[in-house]
Amino acid sequence: MKTTLGVLAVGLLVSGLMATPAAGAAGTASYPLATKTSAVEVAAFWLGNGGANLTNATPYAVQTAIDEVILSGPAAPDGKPGNIPPVLPPDGAGSAGKGPVSSGKVFFVGADGLPHWCTGTAMQSQYRNLVATAGHCAYNTQGSGAGLDKWVFIPGYSAGTAPSGLYVGKQLFTHFDFPTYGDYDGDYAFVTVYNGVTSSPAGELTDTGRLVDQVGGQGLAWNQPLDSSVDVFGFPAGVHPDGSHPQPGDTLETFSGRTSAAQAPGLKAEELTAVDSPFAGEGSLGSSWLLRYDKSRRVGYLNALTISVADTDGDLRYDKRFSPYFDGELAAVYSDAGTQWSGSIVLP
Length: 348
Hints:
Elements (H helix, E strand, L loop, with lengths): L1 E3 L23 E5 L3 H21 L1 E2 L22 E3 L18 E7 L5 E9 L6 E5 L14 E7 L11 E9 L1 H5 L6 E6 L2 E4 L4 E6 L1 H5 L3 E4 L6 E6 L18 E6 L1 E5 L4 E8 L11 E7 L4 E7 L2 E3 L9 E5 L3 H11 L10
Parallel strand pairs: 3-6, 13-19
Antiparallel strand pairs: 1-12, 2-9, 4-13, 5-6, 5-8, 6-7, 7-10, 8-9, 9-10, 11-12, 14-15, 14-18, 16-17, 17-21, 18-19, 20-21
């Protein structure tokens, strides 16, 4: 099909695109990102002119670093531990790269009117159309009260290309307390995306199918014990406080560490997860922390994602990164998002 540019089903359903946030049974807030018609225009914005807006995008710098951190906290399970298993990527998918095939960059236009990016991850879900990232890499915290503009996900992004397609965001789901009260314990987002598209030199869009069918999808784990080993994957591109800039954000980077509890009073965040980290913050916001990661199969269980970093020992290098603790409320937001179908933006 072509046009021209111009498995889990639990929890309550959240109705289609909504103009204002709606609270679900577990406190879910939902925001529309693009209709099928506007999604074609979004794809044109990013894929047109040889992907110029993709290559000109800069790593998102909003709420990157935390100044006041308490390296302890009450983060704890609010119920029984649970998990959703991952979906393996198809044979040969992303074979030339390293790390999860499901990892990529989310692109959007910020409140400053300029293109930016964070890290995102394809997730297992009923309709195989879900992306996880930091909440403020999908919801505009700069005052619009809506999702960020022209939001897309590109798994395996490299140098302005979309090797497995570009996926336009349809609808954003996050914890109700994050946009409503500025509570960063809920700074996570699950975004449904339309089927992927690629573009010909003439501007014709071709449907590449559902996201997880193309690159697999990570599982989800919640109410897990702290002091667990995780593998972190992201595209760090920022500058440390000492001015050093060790990673340019061109390739997926990884490290391993053990989780602990933390708090960030300035973000109203009392139930955070922390991990020692050599990465800078910009670019790696939204990066996945995978529990029980299988290197041979390149899948694991998303158990946290980066929302900010901090220099906790005063050596002018960021050494910790932070995530909301994944509890039953997060699992319920994921459930609300995972029951939403999206479909194709390409006309038959």
